[in-house]
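Cast an eye over this sequence plus tokens and explain the fold to me:
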Amino acid sequence: MKNFTYYRPTSAEQAIGLLDTKWGTSELLAGGTDLLDLQKEYIAQPDKVVSLRDLGKEFRGIAVSSPPGNFPPSITIGAGVTLAEIAAHKQIRGTYPALSTAAGDIGGPQIRNMGTLGGNLCQRNRCWYFRDEHTHCLLKGGDKCFAIDGENRYHAIFTQGHKCVIVNPSTLAPVLIALHGTAKVLGPKGERTLELAKFFHAPQSAGEREHGLEPNELVLSVTIPVVTEQFWDMRNASYEVRHKQSYDWPLVQAAVALPMKDGNVKGARVILGHVAPTPHVAEAAAKALEGKEVTEETATAAGEAAAEGAKPLSQNAYKVKLVAVAVKRALLTAAGHKKYWEV
């Protein structure tokens, strides 16, 4: 591991002042569950490591703001809040079970107690070619994505227009996008707010990342906004397909948010994770649900619609079926149906 200078600023503004204007020379350290791996794999070799451990309460707290009336609350989660804290939070579990479920399914207890919201959103991809120090792939300055013609069973199936076929590794991102989440970002020019639906980016070179932040910016918090339409009954759920229930990366994830009126869906959001270089918005699935009750038949049709447009690689066509299954089960879970797939 390359020697580096370690900094512990006490404010977000101080942290920003320590970051450089290009990628690679300085790195932010939150829980460290990704950065340490990247350094040991010689992918990240920064001159400066800037710890976020001593930033203020806003960065490490969860704030709930309940509007007048019987509406779901707005929740603001600091970027330094751990995954375990998100999974255990009473109001998140009650109002946004999709988020608590997704957070509680990540890694194992050790990872959830160290990993943070901001880290989960901004982590690097898990492609084995990218993580191999001996492979000079597209995202490390090379001219080739080796996964396209190589070992690609865990890679993207929505690959149109992408030179690199990684999958976005964030499990919280699909849920937060489904819930219309926004991120508050701080940089040298001050704060700005980004819709999480526009936060992620499909990188194509070493000078890009899996998100739209500048090298000298950091995420302060994420907010799930208030839903004020009186007829809405906001149902939501997240469902993952994995090889095993213990520490593992999802093969496919489906996050759904179902605003309901008189028992029928109005304005659904269906977001797929781990199937494309960015979280994938399944517009056809949402359209298939509009104005309908969530039944096994409509959930099945929506799942099949979610897989439309997939262009699998040589070894991952199985993911197309998994998309349909994950969406169907997420919808049935959100609607309160019995989970027939659980023994």
